[in-house]
Amino acid sequence: MAKALTAKRVDQVNVGLVIISLALAVFFPYRGFLVAYAVLGPLHYLTELNWLHGRDYFMKNRQWIWIAFGGAFLVSFPKLVDPKYPTASWFPAGLTNAINEVDVFSNAFLFVTLLLAITFVLTKNRKIRLAALGVGVALGILLREVEFYYIFIGLLLPTLVHVYLFTLLFMYFGAKRSKSKWGYAALGMAVAAPVFIAFFDPANILYIFPEATKEMIVENNFHITNVLFGKTLSLTDGTSFAWYDKLFLRLQIFISFAYIYHYLNWFSKTSVIGWHKNLSVKKTSGIIVIWGIIVALFAIDYKLGFIAGLGLSFMHVMGEFPLNVITIKSLFAKG
Fold this sequence. Notes:
The structure is a single chain. The chain has one domain. Helix content is 78%, strand content 0%. The protein is built from 15 helices and no strands. Helix 3 (63-80) crosses helix 4, helix 7 packs antiparallel against helix 8 and helix 10 (222-232) crosses helix 11 (246-268). The longest helix is centred in the middle third of the chain and has 32 residues, at 147-178. The two termini are 24 Å apart.
């Protein structure tokens, strides 16, 4: 009974969190996103990775850890030696170009990891898994220049698909399992948020974005998500961007909402999924120290903080792939 009441209270809290996240996104579309990404993001990565590790990443095969983390390393490491980032200065210049070539196939690493997650969940047959690996590598190379592929896999999958669509799937799974009216209410509000944003007129608010905010967004290419997400929806041509244009403001409000709510939803579910239960004093101290360092780097130079947390970000996205697949599979299972 106590557990059920706790779950009900969490669902009620999430109704409020949807409203709070939407309000913050509407009034602070860029700054709200930047603060949430810098402060809540790293703490989310660290606590979820600890939880996933305690659950063996929902895979009985320990090989998955090496696949997920190896893929995350290959996707994120080239950014450390990219000349446009300050962290590149410590790396031998002679190897920089060679390693940056790896970055060309970053989408393929994401795609192959996702395909292997699907295969590992659905079958234990080693031959099928090896075949999936071969098919994934081949498609990753062949589709590299296909626009929808590199936008969806390289940009939307680790961003909006992860923070919004997968969050909705988890909410639906939880509400369906618990038959919680409040759970369905929170889910319905989260689904309705983009509809509200689509009809919201940004002219009702006098937006003034400081130059420092604009610089942080552009230097870390956050505006690219706005632009290419709009192109995916056939709303923009994918080449232009304007800070105060109503369309781009609506897109950014949605992006900000998705990220803020994704983080708050995770921390609100502590008592429900119990991600805190395997946090020893040593682990908690380590998480706090690492989180503090990353947040401090964000405060010193947002770009440095972005790079410092990038590997953890991809690790938690790719490490979660099996859970995403299992959740989808469970939702469509009979009974």
